[in-house]
Amino acid sequence: MTDLQKLTIGKALNLGLRRAMEEDPKVLIMGEDVGKLGGVFRITDGLQKDFGEQRVLDTPLAESGIIGTAVGLAVRGFRPVCEIQFEGFIFPGFDQISSQLAKLHYRTQGKVKMPVVIRVPFGGGIGAVEHHSESPESLFAHIPGLKVVSISNAVDAYWGIQEAIKSDDPILFFEPKRLYHSGALRAEIDVAGPPQKMTSSQVVREGTTATVVAYGPSVKVALDAAAAAEDEGKSLEVIDLRTLSPLDLGPVFESVRKTGRLIALSEAPSESSLTSEIAARVQQECFYSLEAPVLRVTGFDTPYPPAKLEEHYLPDLDRVLHAVDRSLAW
C-alpha cells in the first residue's frame, strides 16, 4: 500500500516525528514552545494535541536543562527528541552534549545507550536578530561520540528524522530553517513506504567540469549554480554530504577523480571547519587527480552580521560560479 504526499521540508519533519511517535511510545518530544505553539517554525504542530503533554513537553528556557533531562530519560529507556529553538541557543547545553551525551556510551563500554536526537534549526536567510542565523555544525562534528546530520530536502527530512530517532547513538540533526516551508522544494514521498537510509553522501546532479560539495541550505545554492553554469557550457557535479560526522567522502573522491576540481560550499566560517576537513582529505586521497587546488566558498570569519547585511555574508550563486572560474583558470 502506498500513500504519496507532496511535502515541504517542514511538513515532512512533522509527519516523520508523528510516525516515530506512533511506532514507539518511548519517543518523547521536548523543547521550548514545542507543545501548544507547535514550535516557532510549527514543525511540531498538532503533536501535543494528539499525543498529550506527557509525550510532547513544553520546557523552561534552559537548554542545559533540556539536554540534561534528555540524558536521564535515555538512561531510563526513553528516546527523547529535543528541539533547540535556534542554533545560537545551543551553547548553554554544550557541556551536557560534549561531556555527558557524547561520552556515556563509551564510558560504560556500551552498557548505557544514548538514543537522543537534538533537532537544530540552523543557517541564515530569514532576516533574524543576533544568535538566530548561525552555523555551529563543525563544533559538534569535532566531538567523538556524536553523529551529526544535515538535511537539504523533504525526502531526507521525513526518513532521516525517523532513522535518527531509532538510532541508539546521540545525533545532532541540523535543519535548514529558511527552507522549511519552501514550496519550490516540495517533494513527493510515499509516507507509508519502506524506510530510506541517509548515512551516505549522495550525488544530486551529475557533471564533468567540476565537483561542488555542500550540505544543508547550501545544497540548493549549489544546484542553482549548476543550472546557471550549464548555460555557460560548464557541467557541475553536485554532492550532498547529508551526514557530517562521520563523513562519507567516498562519492566525493570518486567525483574529484573524474572532474579534477572541487569547490566546497558552506554557510559556516571557513577557518577550522567542515570545508577545511574536506579540502584536507581530498588533497590527501586525490592529489594526483586534482587539476587545481580545492577552493572553498563559505561565510566569512566574523560573527554573523545584522539582517540587512546577511545577503553579502551568505555564499550565493555568483560566489560559487566565481570559484568555478578560478578553478578552471588555474
TrEMBL record:
<feature type="domain" description="Transketolase-like pyrimidine-binding">
    <location>
        <begin position="7"/>
        <end position="182"/>
    </location>
</feature>
<keyword id="KW-0560">Oxidoreductase</keyword>
<dbReference type="GO" id="GO:0000287">
    <property type="term" value="F:magnesium ion binding"/>
</dbReference>
<keyword id="KW-0786">Thiamine pyrophosphate</keyword>
<dbReference type="InterPro" id="IPR009014">
    <property type="entry name" value="Transketo_C/PFOR_II"/>
</dbReference>
<dbReference type="InterPro" id="IPR029061">
    <property type="entry name" value="THDP-binding"/>
</dbReference>
<protein>
    <submittedName>
        <fullName>Alpha-ketoacid dehydrogenase subunit beta</fullName>
    </submittedName>
</protein>
<dbReference type="Pfam" id="PF02780">
    <property type="entry name" value="Transketolase_C"/>
</dbReference>
<dbReference type="GO" id="GO:0016491">
    <property type="term" value="F:oxidoreductase activity"/>
</dbReference>
<dbReference type="InterPro" id="IPR033248">
    <property type="entry name" value="Transketolase_C"/>
</dbReference>
<dbReference type="InterPro" id="IPR005475">
    <property type="entry name" value="Transketolase-like_Pyr-bd"/>
</dbReference>
<dbReference type="Pfam" id="PF02779">
    <property type="entry name" value="Transket_pyr"/>
</dbReference>
